[in-house]
Amino acid sequence: MTGRDAASPHSGQIVPAHELPVPSTVSAELQARIGLTATMSFPADVPTTNDGWDRQYNPDPAANRTRIDALLVDNNLVMEKKDIGGVHCYHIIPRELGDPENGCTIVNFHGGGYVGGRGEAGLNEALFVASVGRLATVAVDYRMPPEHPFPAAVDDADAVWLTLSSQLGPARVGLFGTSAGGGIILCLVQRLIARREAVPGAIVCGTPWSDLSETGDSYFVNRYADIVRYEGSLGVKALQYAGGRDLKDPLLSPVYGDFHGFPPTLLLSGTRDLFLSNTVRVERKLRDAGASSHLIVYEGQSHGRYLSGLDVPETRVAAQDMASFFRQHILPKS
């Protein structure tokens, strides 16, 4: 079941073919990135193993490690591997914080369609926000399909949350993630509320994959404006993650779940984002449930484009937006 909007009984609108220019309203650095992706090609074969996805998402681990080391040095960060609640994680700490164990922590769940970003390949967002925001950050290396389909990722998120919230207090822990990472956070918070347990002090969900089916206006309006594709890519990842479940099951697609009792939530998207509808539908559900919700839609950006790199102004802006939100909600008031 895909839940395609094309199944509507009403006839659709035919849009003439036209050139989509690189937006002139973003930085020169981001314009260059967008221009490069316009000519990108993708592998014809879709991986069916975790190792296959690793090769696609991290084709040169040594080069990626060199890049990470440079980011750590340039931004005065310390990173160590850490087991939290039985889950492999990375603890990233700005050096000036010293030992922040009794302070606040933000926890990142990386994107990658639930199948990509294992190990150090999934550290970008955590490193960017820790660098700009100067906040102690935990990056969760959650289990992924095909070997570990749902609910493994949410179970890992749950285990990390229970450990950190018991150590620091729920109100002093924030959660953030993009795409699949945002979906994991929404599912975890709904699980906590269903168990009548405490929720995080605040969450940030960047362009969350809140509906694994191809349902929502921007799946079609931005089909070719965004480099991300559902057919042959996201749709395959969704099926590998779902493990036979209906893609509209609220346990997988949290937009169909209950948003009463949610903590303050910041949502990020872009005008060219395939997941713009995934994001605004969640924002509407939060408002209807009486939750505190804030939505930022970045100009000219496609799915997760704000993670382009610290040399891109839009990345620093987004990282600062996230950090400022956490400082407002989880840091002790002086």
Keywords:
36% helix, 334 residues, 10 helices, alpha/beta
Description of the molecule:
- By secondary structure, this protein is an alpha/beta fold.
- It has a single domain, classed as Rossmann fold (3-Layer(aba) Sandwich).
- The protein is built from 10 helices and 8 strands.
- The chain has an 8-stranded mixed sheet, sandwiched between helices.
- The chain is globular and about 60 Å long.
- The mean pLDDT is 93.
CATH architecture: 3-Layer(aba) Sandwich
Q: Tell me the CATH superfamily.
A: Alpha/Beta hydrolase fold, catalytic domain
> How far apart are the first and last residues' alpha carbons, in Å?
51 Å
Strand percentage lies at: 5-15%
Shape: globular
Write a compact overview of the structure shown.
The protein has 334 residues and is α/β, with parallel strands linked by helices. 36% of the residues lie in helices and 14% in strands. The relative contact order is 0.15.
Task: Please give the structural blueprint.
Blueprint: H1 28-37, H2 50-57, H3 61-74, E1 77-84, E2 87-94, E3 105-109, H4 124-133, E4 137-140, H5 152-168, E5 173-178, H6 180-194, E6 202-206, H7 218-221, H8 230-242, E7 265-270, H9 276-288, E8 293-298, H10 313-329
Parallel strand pairs: 3-4, 3-5, 5-6, 6-7, 7-8
Antiparallel strand pairs: 1-2, 2-4
